[in-house]
Structure formats: C-alpha cells, structure tokens
Amino acid sequence: MDFNIAVIPGDGIGPEIVAEAQKVLDTVGKKFGHSFSYTEVDMGGVSIDKHGVPLTDEALATAKASDAVLLGAVGGVVGKDSWYDLPPHLRPEAGLLAIRKGLGLFANLRPAYLYKELKGACPLKESVADAGFDMIIVRELTGGLYFGERKTEEVNGVMTAIDTLKYDENEIRRIAIKAFEIAMKRRKSVISVDKSNVLDSSRLWDKVVTEVAKDYPEVTLTHMLVDNCAMQLVKDPAQFDVVVTENMFGDILSDEASMVTGSIGMLSSASLAEGKFGLYEPSHGAAPDIAGQNKANPIATILSAAMMLRYSFDLDEEAKAVEDAVQKVLEDGIRTIDIMSDGMQMVGCKEMGDCICERI
Length: 360
Ligand code: ATP
Ligand code: MG
Hints:
46% of the residues are buried. The chain is an alpha/beta fold. The chain folds into two domains: 1-110 and 265-360, 3-Layer(aba) Sandwich (Isopropylmalate Dehydrogenase), CATH 3.40.718; 123-260, Isopropylmalate Dehydrogenase. The chain has helices spanning 14-32, 45-51, 57-65, 92-102, 126-131, 169-184, 200-213, 226-235, 247-259, 299-311, 316-331, 349-359, and strands at 2-10, 35-40, 68-73, 107-113, 134-140, 150-155, 158-163, 189-194, 220-225, 242-245, 268-272, 278-282, 334-335, 345-346. The protein is globular, with a radius of gyration of 21 Å. Helix 6 (169-184) packs across helix 7 (200-213), helix 8 (226-235) runs parallel beside helix 9 and helix 10 (299-311) runs antiparallel to helix 11. The structure holds adenosine-5'-triphosphate and magnesium ion.
C-alpha cells in the first residue's frame, strides 16, 4: 500500500531524529512491500524564521491532506533564541497547539514501557522493575478542566478564581472507543481513571465508559480512582495495560508513568483524531543542548513511527518488526549516550538508526 506522510522535522534535534525514523519506515516498506512518500512541513522556530509564524495555513493544509504526521520536536532556549522575544502566540510551541487544534487531535497516547536492558535507569524498587511494565495512557486532550469556563473575580472584597471541569457524553464516548480499540490490539484490559467518589463529571465518565465496554466483550474494564492510580503506578505498574482518563488527570499521570521508565530518549507518543488520522512524535523536546552533534537518541521517534504503522495504517506486523528491532539493538548492547552504561557500545544518532534498520 502507499501512504503519504507529512514530516515536520522542527527545531533542535528534530531534523536528525526524524531522518532516522524515515530511514526505518523506508526499510520496513521495502521488506513488507509498502511505499511511504513524504511531504516536508515547516513548524516551530524554523517556520518563524522562514515565514514569521510558527505554523502557516499552507503547512496546516498539507498536514491535513496527508495520511498521518510525523513530528520531530519544536522549541529552543528561552533567553537565547530570539523566538522567545515574540508574544506567546507567535512562539515555536504555539505551532504545536495550532496543529493539534487544526487537526482535531483529541486522544493523546503515551506508552510507558520498561526494557529489561535499561532496568538500571528505572527509579522503582528492584522487585517492581524486575516485574517490568508495558502500558499506555490514553488522555483526553480537548476537554475537561483545561478548556472549561474560567474566571477570576472579586467577591465581597475577596479574590476568587473558578475553573470548570466539563465533559459531555459524546466527548467521553469517543475517547473511550479509542481506548477500547487500542486495548483490542494489546492485552485487552482497560482501566478507566477518574474521581467518581467526588466529581459529577467523573460519574458521567464512569457511566459512559461502562456503556462503551459492552461493545467490547473481550476487553476487561476496571474503574480506578485517580489518587489510587498515582499510587499504583509506582507500587505495581505491571497491572496496567491501557489507562483512559480525562485531560488533567492524564497530563499528570502520563508524566508520572513516563518517568518510571527512567529514559526520556525512548518514549514515543501519538495524538489521534476521529478515524485513523494521527500525529506521532517523541515525548521529549527539541534538546537544543545536543542539536547537530549526532548525539540524540532517535529511538523515541522511531517507536512513534511504529505507532503510526499500527494506529493510522493498521500495519501491526510491520509495527512489531520495528519494535522487535529496537529490542534487538538493546540486547546487542548498542546505546546512544543518554542510555549508555558500562560495557556497552556507544553509537551516534545516525548509527543507531542504521543498526535498527539492519535488524529489521
Ligand atoms: P520540552 O520541549 O518538552 O519542554 P524540555 O526542554 O524540558 O522539553 P528536552 O528538550 O526534552 O526538555 O530535553 C531535556 C534533556 O533531555 C536535555 O538535556 C536533552 O539533551 C535530553 N534529551 C531529550 N531528548 C533526548 C534524546 N532523544 N536523546 C538524548 N537526549 C535527549
Ligand atoms: Mg524545550
């Protein structure tokens, strides 16, 4: 099959890591008989320099017309890059918000996976790290507390601020469906996280997710309170497969989950729209401190490309081939500087990409 991918290299290490992910996609394409074509799109600082804004209408239109988007990273250093002399809505990161909105991305997927070869970096108890974990957090991205009505006012001489956490049943249903669809491709377990002992929005969340579960009889649904989930993530992360939760809870829990793996250069992410469309990017930022030095770890971006194969193109076997090659590279003792340890072989960004391609 043929797929058209919009590629946004962005700033900092973005161009280097995206190049390696494209190399991996081409290798998979050759092996399995698919062709991937790429259209390059400017976003972030690079777009400010060329076009004066972090995302042009044309760039957004090109991304929209593609089958999926592969993004490196955007951003620079506050106080060093002149981009940050601009008002906030014209800075590199504003491009990200604009593209998320423009593409209708409402489901943010953040996997947290502990490779046994990298267990040493895991901050959890040895017995917990030994058990390993492989989970994915599905965070609602367009509703909830971050987008509800808000105001700050003076009431009887006292400053008062209000934020509202609002969801309608349709918003909950569409994110729940995503979570169950993802669970069908994994270990068939969904844990829905909320605060239904206190919040009305959580009680509606519970009810709708339970209704959606009826369409997925093979998947086990469990409800968990958010405070308990925060605790369980460090106590026994092996119990989690797919977690689905509202925007703010997901923001907090996905950072917690990613940190328990210990290695920022390894974590992929995806943001999905209605249907199969999605944007795929590493969880880390543009890392300007190591940009242009062939030092970046491209694995997070390569694993994001694997997510694209699985979730946007339904190419499960091909996605697995990429993930297996990453696993094999680690087993073979090959490391970039961020995951380096004694006795391992250190390679650069480009060489890491080559090693993964060889193993595919
Ligand atoms: P954000 O852009 O999300 O705000 P940040 O600026 O806080 O992120 P990053 O850009 O992710 O942080 O970088 C944090 C640190 O991690 C830096 O020292 C950077 O060099 C390192 N780092 C990030 N990504 C990678 C990578 N792929 N390979 C190696 N090191 C990385
Ligand atoms: Mg940054």
